[in-house]
């Protein structure tokens, strides 16, 4: 088509005939008019959602038909291209969610395997300790076996000595008993001798009496009788002394006999205990041998288990490395997917000047209209002195909780809100209560004009929304699942990274490196130009992202300024299913 237009312009130029005065003739003037008409028609080609250029006059019918055909083909191509871009963005968004999910799972698996590897390493260390302890226990058991063997030998020797002592003590007791018995017999004999001596003395006395009676003839007999008497007295005296000595010996021997009897009994008991100790040592020796055998078996089993654990640990370490590689590859794919998303965003930028009438261009036009309306709300409140420009731009927030919750009763029922506040938290600013209801009216009207839109609002540079559409401003129920979806006003939306990028559209990479909640001074220190460019900003950003539910949403943002200073962005979203 462009070639046909060029051919017509060439043909017209060839037919232009100058007059003799050097000025274009009638044919030249007609051609100039034709060229201007064509230029105007070409200028209208970008407006592909209207009727298109119409050229008047029979001489322009051919050009008009060519331009109409070209316009139709261009619109079809751009709409098709936008559809391809949209589908690519949807695919990239869904892939991004899947990759994030896989990356999350891989991270969990990576942590789990690392934990398992660490546990295996600890088990291996414990097994080493058990093996060493088992080996040491086996050595100790062998040492106990040796010591009990020595103890058994010593006990056997002690038992033999005790038995010999017992036998000797028993023999001594028997001999001492015999000695005591002999002493008793000696005492009895001494008594007999003493009795005989007494009788002999009595006989000597009688003999002396008889000798006295005999006179001179009995004098010799008297001497014999006297000597017999003296001998009897000496014998009785010696018998008494022997009896006393024997009695003294008996008296001294009786305790010794008792002690010897006790010693014999103790020796008997000691022998019994020594025998019991020997039996115990023999049992200990047997148990020590068995324990040594068991400990050796345990040590061998632990060594085998340790070798198996080492193999498992090596396998886990290899698995950790492989998972780390997969995780890194997943991150690479995620970055490449992000690059693809960035390319689709860039492609939307090239489609911006051509109005094809698709949801993208309709949303872009509505965003710019919402920008004008919301700017007027802010600036009117500032001009009337109800709020200050500084309070609008300062990016300072106060969490709404306690008594402050009642201030939101003008927007929705707060009777079920706990004293500790909202989840997720809601925040107020120095200006939001002044402008929120007026902003909501304009946002709801824009939302109602496009059936495919699911939200239309204004957010600041930190994704704070002072108000949301009324469908997201429902009464607070206290049920988290309902309130998270049904009441989304006066909160941040930086949980979605795409909205942080959208809120800071046009500010460059430095703005994206700042925290999700940054101060205005942070933006200025990062080198961000927060002033409105002359003639206004034509920047916009279309991002396609998938939620956890699988629904794919396209978010369009354009910079939003108040009194020539950057506030944040106008945000519109629609469900991106690839349709127009």
In short:
Residues 84-320 form the Methyl-accepting transducer domain. The protein is an alpha+beta fold and 580 residues long. It contains 11 helices and 6 strands.
What does this 3D model show about the protein?
- The chain has 3 domains: 1-46; 99-335, Helix Hairpins (Orthogonal Bundle), CATH 1.10.287; 358-575, no CATH class.
- It is α+β, with helices and mostly antiparallel strands and 580 residues long.
- Strand 5 and strand 6 form a beta hairpin.
- The strands form 2 sheets. Strands 3-6-5-4 form a 4-stranded antiparallel sheet, with helices on both faces.
- 67% of the residues lie in helices and 7% in strands.
- Residues 1-12 have a biased composition (Basic and acidic residues).
- Residues 1-28 are annotated as: Disordered.
Strand fraction band? 5-15%
Uncertain regions spanning at least 5 consecutive residues: 1-21, 336-340
Distance between the termini: 26 Å
- State the major sheet: 4 strands, antiparallel
| Rg calc | 62 Å
Please, how many domains? Answer: 3
Topology of this protein?
Elements: H1 2-15, H2 26-43, H3 61-214, H4 219-351, H5 359-383, H6 389-393, E1 398-399, E2 427-428, H7 432-448, E3 453-460, H8 480-486, H9 497-503, H10 509-512, H11 520-525, E4 541-546, E5 552-562, E6 565-575
Antiparallel strand pairs: 1-2, 3-6, 4-5, 5-6
Helix pairs in contact: 1-2, 1-3, 3-4, 5-7
């Amino acid at each position: 088509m462009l070639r046909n237009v060029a051919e017509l312009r060439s043909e017209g130029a060839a037919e232009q005939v100058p007059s003799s005065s050097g000025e274009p003739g009638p044919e030249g003037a007609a051609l100039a008019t034709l060229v201007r008409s064509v230029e105007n028609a070409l200028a209208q080609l970008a407006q592909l959602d209207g009727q298109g250029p119409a050229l008047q006059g029979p001489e322009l019918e051919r050009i008009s038909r060519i331009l109409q055909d070209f316009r139709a083909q261009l619109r079809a191509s751009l709409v098709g291209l936008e559809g391809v871009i949209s589908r690519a963005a949807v695919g990239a968004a869904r892939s991004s969610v899947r990759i994030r999910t896989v990356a999350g799972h891989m991270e969990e698996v990576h942590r789990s395997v690392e934990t398992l590897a660490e546990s295996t390493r600890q088990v291996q260390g414990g097994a080493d300790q058990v093996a060493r302890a088992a080996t040491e226990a086996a050595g100790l058991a062998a040492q106990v076996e040796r010591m009990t063997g020595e103890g058994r030998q010593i006990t056997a020797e002690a038992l033999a000595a005790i038995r010999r002592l017992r036998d000797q003590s028993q023999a001594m007791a028997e001999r001492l008993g015999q000695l005591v018995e002999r002493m008793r017999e000696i005492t009895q004999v001494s008594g007999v001798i003493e009795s005989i001596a007494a009788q002999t003395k009595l006989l000597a006395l009688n003999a002396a009496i008889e000798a006295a009676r005999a006179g001179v003839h009995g004098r010799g007999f008297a001497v014999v009788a006297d000597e017999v008497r003296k001998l009897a007295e000496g014998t009785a005296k010696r018998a008494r002394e022997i009896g006393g000595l024997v009695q003294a010996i008996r008296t001294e021997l009786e305790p010794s006999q008792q002690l010897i009897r006790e010693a014999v009994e103790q020796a008997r008991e000691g022998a019994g205990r020594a025998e019991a100790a020997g039996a115990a040592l023999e049992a200990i020796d047997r148990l020590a041998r068995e324990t040594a055998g068991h400990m050796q078996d345990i040590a061998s089993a632990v060594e085998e288990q340790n070798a198996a654990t080492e193999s498992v640990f090596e396998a886990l370490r290899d698995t950790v490395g492989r998972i780390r590689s997969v995780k890194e590859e997943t991150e690479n794919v995620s970055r490449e997917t992000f690059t693809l998303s960035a390319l689709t965003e860039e492609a939307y930028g090239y489609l911006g000047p051509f109005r094809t009438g698709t949801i993208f261009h309709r949303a872009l036009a509505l965003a710019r209209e919402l920008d004008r309306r919301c700017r007027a709300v802010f600036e009117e409140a500032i001009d009337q002195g109800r709020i200050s420009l500084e309070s609008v731009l300062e990016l300072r927030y106060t969490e709404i909780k306690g008594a402050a919750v009642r201030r939101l009763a003008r927007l929705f029922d707060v009777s079920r809100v706990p004293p500790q506040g909202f989840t997720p938290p809601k925040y107020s600013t120095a200006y939001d209560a002044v402008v929120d209801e007026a902003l909501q009216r304009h946002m709801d009207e824009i939302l109602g004009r496009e059936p495919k839109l699911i939200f239309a609002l204004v957010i600041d540079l930190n994704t704070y929304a002072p108000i949301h559409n009324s469908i997201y401003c429902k009464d607070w129920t206290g049920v988290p699942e309902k309130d998270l979806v049904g009441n989304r006003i006066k909160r941040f939306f930086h949980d979605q990274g795409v909205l942080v990028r959208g809120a800071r559209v046009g500010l460059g990479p430095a703005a994206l490196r700042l925290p999700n909640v940054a101060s205005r001074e942070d933006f200025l220190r990062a080198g961000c130009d927060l002033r409105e460019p002359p003639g206004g900003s034509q920047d916009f950003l279309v991002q396609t992202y998938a939620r956890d539910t699988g629904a794919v949403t396209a978010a369009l943002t354009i910079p939003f300024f108040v009194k020539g200073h950057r506030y944040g962005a106008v945000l519109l979203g629609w469900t991106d299913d690839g349709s127009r």
